[in-house]
Amino acid sequence: MKNLKVLKEIYSLFSLSLIVLGIVFLAKSTMAADVFCRICGILLLLFGIVKLFGYFSRDLLQLAFQFDFAMGIISSLIGFVMFFWTTRFIDLLIIGIGLFIVFDALLRIQTALDARKIGVQSWWVILLMALITGVIGVILFLKPYTGRTALVMLIGLNLIIDGILNLFVVQSTVTTIWRDRKWEI
User: What stretch or stretches form a coiled coil here (predicted)?
Assistant: First the structure.
């Protein structure tokens, strides 16, 4: 159970770092494409590793980490590509990021619906934030903006929302014991 608490703290810290990185991307939206790709690559590699650890944790409800095996591998692969093949593939990577965000949003929608089934009262917050994240992912995928500045800002906004969503999900659904009709950690 102690390992799960540590994992929950790491996951929460990582979610907070997504929020901070999103703010940086919004503030510095004109950064060079290769710097942007390398930062995102490192972030996705770390994100993938954290997700894989989450998947193999001993969370009783298995809501927060239920899709983390696939998302961990996908995150790591995209991160690797972004770090080593920067500006040559930026357009392809932006489309890939958009798809990744859409897939993650769809999985979070399923998490919200599963949380509703078992009685988590704040399931609708997860659903709402997943829908917002999904819309941003679709916009990135369709790439209606030709300027990279707008895309970096859109990715920054999504990182902020996704960080808040991840933080909310892990804080509200990761539990280890059942006490008096209430899950606790």
Answer: none
Q: So what's the pLDDT on residue 178? A: 44
pTM across the whole model: 0.56
Query: CA 119, CA 182: separation in Å to the nearest integer?
Result: 10
HSE-up of 45 (CA within 13 Å, CB side)? 12
- The mean pLDDT value for 65-90 works out to 79
In the 3-class helix/strand/coil scheme, how is the chain assigned residue by residue?
CHHHHHHHHHHHHHHHHHHHHHHHHHHCCCCCHHHHHHHHHHHHHHHHHHHHHHHCCCCCCCCCCCCHHHHHHHHHHHHHHHHHCCHHHHHHHHHHHHHHHHHHHHHHHHHHHHHHHCCCCCHHHHHHHHHHHHHHHHHHHHCCCCCHHHHHHHHHHHHHHHHHHHHHHHHHHCCCEEECCEEEC
- Separation of CA 45 from chain center: 12
Give residue 145's pLDDT: 58
What is the average pLDDT score of the chain?
Answer: 78
Cα-to-chain-centroid distance, residue 66: 13
What count of other Cβ atoms lies within 10 Å of the Cβ of residue 56? 12
CA gap 49, 38 in Å, rounded: 17
63, 114 contact by CB (below 8 A)? yes
